[in-house]
Amino acid sequence: VSTMNAKNSTEGEEEASGMRNETLGESGSLGEVKRGQVIRVAYVIAALDLTFLFMQMGIMPYLAKSLGLDSVGFGYLQTIFGVMQLVGGYIFGRFADRFGARAALILSCASGSVFFLLMSFSTSIPLLFLSRLPGVFMHGIPGAQKVITDVTTPSQRAGALGKLGLCFGVGIIAGSALGGALSTKVSIYAPTYVGLVGSLLNILIAVVWIPSQTKPKSDHGETEHGTSQSGSLFSIREILRLMKFPGVMEVFIVKVFAGLPIGLFMIMFSIISMDFFGLEAVESGYLMSYFGVLQMVVQGLVVGKLARHCTEMTLLRLSVFVFAGVGLGMALMRTVWHYCIIAVPLVFAFSMLATITDSILTKAVPSSDTGAMLGICASVQPLTRTVGPTIGGVLYKQFGVSSFGYLLLMVNLGLFVYLLKSKIPLGEMKS
C-alpha cells in the first residue's frame, strides 16, 4: 500500500510538473537532470564547432595566397561564404522546427565535414571556391541555440543563451592557436583534417546525447492560428508572418542596426590593425585572444546574472546606450591601447544585445517557430559580412577609422531615444 501511495504521489508530482513545463514552454518529456545534461552537450558541440571554424579562418588567407589568389579574389571568396550563410540561415531554422534540433545539429556537422573535406582537397582556386558551398548549412551556434530554447523556461533562456559566449571564447582562443600551430609545424592542410575528424565526432555526440525530440509534445502538429502553415523550407510569407507578432519587428530592427556599425568595423579590422595600429600578425593574434577572454567573462559571468535581476527591455536599452558610448570612444581613439580599453564595454554591449534580442524574439513567436526565428537572427551577421566589405571599405578610405565610431554613436543614440519613447509589447507566446 505504501508503495502504491508513493507511486501515485510521484505520478501526481510528475503530472503537475509536466503541466508547469508545458505552460512555460519546456519539454515535458525531459527531467531537470536530463535538461541540464542536454544543455551541456549543446555547449560542447558549439565550442568544438567554433574551434574548427576559427582554425580554418586562421589559415584561409595563407592557403588562398599559396594558391595565387589576390586580395580582390579573397574578398570574393569571403563574400560567397557570407552569401551561403545568409541564404541558409532561415532554411536551417525551418529545418530545425520541422525535424528537430538534433537533426539540425547533425545537418550542420555533416555540412562541416564536407566543408573541411573539400578544403583538404583544395589544390586549386576553383576547388577552394567550391569548398565554400557547404557553408549554406553550417550553423552550429543556431543549432545549439535551438536545443537550449527548446529545453529551458523563458526565465532561464537569456542566461542559458548567454553562456554560449563561453563557447565563442573557447573557439577563438583554441581555434586560433591550434590552427597556427598545426599549419606551421605540420602542413597548411593539417587544420582541415582535424576539422573533418572533429565534425564527424560532433555528429556522434549529437546522435548519442541529444534526444530525437526536445520540443514539448504539445507542439507537434500545431495548426492553430499563428503557427506555421507552409510546407516549404523557405517562404517569404512565413518570414513576414513571424515579423507581424507583437514586438518582433521593432526588436529585430534594433538588433540589425545597433550592431551594424561595429560589424563593419570588425570586417575591416585586419586592414585597420595593420595600417592604423601598426600590428604584426602575431600581435593581431594576441588581440583576438584578448577578445576571446573578454567574451568568455562577459557572457559566462555577467549576462546571466544581469538577466536574472533586470527586465529584458532594461538590458536592451542598456546595451544600446553602451554602444553609443563605445562609438564616442572609437571616434577619439588613436592607439591600440585605447582600443583595448574600449573593447571591454564593446564586448559587453555586443554580447548583451545578441543574447537579449535572441531571447526576446524566441519568446515572442510560437514555440513551433523558434528555429525559424533563430535562423532569421543568425542571418544578420552573414548579411553584414556580405555588404560589409564594400560599405566598410568606402568608410575607411574616405573618412578614416573615426567614421566607424561616429556612425556607431549616431545610430545607437537614435535607437536609444526610440526605445525610451516607444512602447514595444514584449509578449510571451505560449505553446
TrEMBL record:
Residues 35-425 form the Major facilitator superfamily (MFS) profile domain. InterPro entries: MFS (IPR011701), MFS_dom (IPR020846), MFS_trans_sf (IPR036259), Tet-R_TetA/multi-R_MdtG-like (IPR001958). It is found in: Apical cell membrane. GO terms for cellular component: apical plasma membrane; nuclear envelope. The keyword ATP-binding does not apply. It is a multi-pass membrane protein. The chain crosses the membrane at residues 41-63, 75-93, 105-129, 188-210, 251-272, 284-303, 315-333, 339-361, 401-420. Its main location: membrane. One of its GO terms (molecular function) is transmembrane transporter activity. Pfam families: MFS_1 (PF07690). Residues 1-27 are annotated as: Disordered. The keyword Cell membrane applies. It comes from the Eukaryota. Keywords: Cell membrane, Membrane, Transmembrane, Transmembrane helix. Coiled coil: none annotated. May act as a transporter of organic cations based on a proton efflux antiport mechanism. May play a role in the transport of chloroquine and quinidine-related compounds in kidney. Plays a role in the regulation of lipid metabolism. This is Organic cation transporter-like protein 2.
